[in-house]
Design a protein that fits this description.
Distance between the termini: 35 Å
CATH class: Alpha Beta
Largest sheet: 5 strands, parallel
CATH architecture: 3-Layer(aba) Sandwich
InterPro entries: Rossmann-like_a/b/a_fold, Universal_stress_UspA, UspA
Pfam family, one: Usp
Domain UspA: 1-146
Family: Belongs to the universal stress protein A family.
Structural class: alpha/beta
Radius of gyration: 16 Å
Shape: globular
CATH superfamily: HUPs
Protein name: TRAP-T-associated universal stress protein TeaD
Number of helices: 6
């Protein structure tokens, strides 16, 4: 049985733990891993740029994709097996909607399981805005496994 597993990665510890778990699943059942990074352009730090939400002048989508590819390569090199079948996907994010990108790619690739980390939002904040993993688990057409890393602090900044 071919098992397609999608792992969204943002550089956080919980996402890395999700990749480790997905690698164990792949080794046990075979199949293909699909690693996804969703590019979110940085916000400019100068006063006018920060006020308008624009990107820095030196930012290009190509730079975002290169950084995403590098993040995926780095994460894979830490836990992946050279004999495993793996594909890297770097996608642009519709503003504030990474869950849509994850679910759309899962459908397009006929994914059987999405394995993703939880950023550990507090209960109150999670109720108000909801986490990406929570939203994906409610709308995905396939099994979604969310891993919570207890030592990750709520809102833990991605490791980059």
């Amino acid at each position: 049985m071919t098992h397609n597993i999608l792992v969204p990665l943002d550089g956080s510890r919980s996402a890395q733990k999700a990749l480790e778990h997905a690698c164990l699943m792949q080794r046990a059942d075979g199949g293909t891993l699909h690693l996804l990074h969703i590019v979110e352009p940085p916000v400019a730090v100068d006063h006018l740029g920060a006020q308008t939400g624009s990107t820095p002048l030196d930012y290009t989508p190509e730079k975002g994709h290169e950084k995403g590819e590098s993040l995926l390569q780095s994460a894979w090199s830490q836990v992946g097996s050279p004999s495993s079948e793996v594909h890297f996907h770097v996608e642009d994010n519709p503003p504030g909607r990474p869950e849509r990108t994850i679910v759309a790619l899962a459908e397009a690739l006929d994914i059987d399981t999405i394995v993703m980390g939880s950023r550990g939002l507090s209960d109150l904040k999670g109720l108000v805005v909801g986490s990406v993993s929570h939203k994906v688990s409610h709308v995905a057409h396939c099994t979604v496994i969310t891993l919570h890393v207890p030592d990750a602090e709520p809102g833990d900044a991605p490791v980059r």
